[in-house]
Amino acid sequence: MNIQKFVAQRKKLGLTQVTLCQGICTQATLSKFERGSQLPSLAILTQLCARLGLGLDDLDDSEILTLRTIKARLAEIEENLMVEDFPKVKQLLKKIDVSQIKTKEEVLRYYLLEGMTNVLTNQPLGRVTASFNPILKALDTKNLSLYVYLAYLGEGIFYIRHDASRQAHFFFHKVERFFNKLPKKIGGELTYAYLTMAYFLAEYHSLMADFEESNRLIKLALAKCASSHRTYYLPRLKLLEAENNLNLKKDNQVILEALEDARAFARLNNNNAVQLQVAALLRSYQRLVLD
Question: Which top-rank group of organisms is this from (predicted)?
Answer without folding.
Answer: Bacteria
